[in-house]
Amino acid sequence: MKNIIVIMGISGAGKSNVAEALSKSLHLPYLDADDFHSKANLMKMSSGTPLTDDDRWPWLASIVEHILNTHRSEFILACSALKQSYRDYLSQRLSITWVFLDITEHEATARLANRKQHYTQASLVQSQLATLEIPKNAIKINATDKLSSIVSRIELQLKKD
Ligand SMILES: Nc1ncnc2c1ncn2[C@@H]1O[C@H](COP(=O)(O)OP(=O)(O)O)[C@@H](O)[C@H]1O
Ligand SMILES: O=C(O)[C@H](O)[C@@H](O)[C@H](O)[C@H](O)COP(=O)(O)O
């Protein structure tokens, strides 16, 4: 099975930033689940409407298919993976190490309000937190630490596992 490190958490937790930095540090390819959303999903999120399970299943399926169809055997993936059922689905055909970026509503809302050129609305943070089922089997990281400290901590934990 392909080995994937998934950086998960709500919108604004820092998934894309952390996944990109970790990918550089570990010299592994990086994928962002954001790039796999359909136009309909993007329009929904742009208008501040939360996605439903029905919106997310085909999206998650397309990510798995993409990974299985590439020749690389290891990836870093930034993906919200908010519910345990989504994580179970991704784990069916991929061997996954989970990294959970933990962030408060206040901090995530402030970050999204400042983040430019992105479709996600800060108003989605509440529904993202309501949907989030905190993983039990993840490397848990305080998302407000410095990016370099986050990357070092993840690398340390990966060595222990
Ligand atoms: N560790 C961090 N410290 C401070 N700001 C951060 C940190 N990680 C991410 N950010 C900022 O927070 C915003 C959201 O980060 P991003 O990686 O896009 O999150 P996500 O992919 O989870 O939505 C961006 O503007 C980013 O620059
Ligand atoms: O499952 C979802 O509701 C979405 O995938 C969401 O969690 C994701 O976070 C968006 O793609 C926004 O993108 P950012 O996470 O990069 O803000």
From TrEMBL:
Q: What GO cellular-component annotations does this UniProt entry give?
A: cytoplasm
Show the taxonomic lineage: Bacteria, Pseudomonadati, Bacteroidota, Cytophagia, Cytophagales
Q: Name one GO biological process term.
A: carbohydrate metabolic process
Q: Which PANTHER family match?
A: GLUCONOKINASE-RELATED
What are the recorded GO MF terms, alphabetically? ATP binding; gluconokinase activity
Q: List the keywords (alphabetical).
A: ATP-binding, Kinase, Nucleotide-binding, Transferase
**CDD domains hit by this protein:** GntK (cd02021)
| Protein's UniProt name | Gluconokinase
Q: Which InterPro entries match?
A: P-loop_NTPase, Therm_gnt_kin
Taxonomic source organism: Roseivirga seohaensis subsp. aquiponti
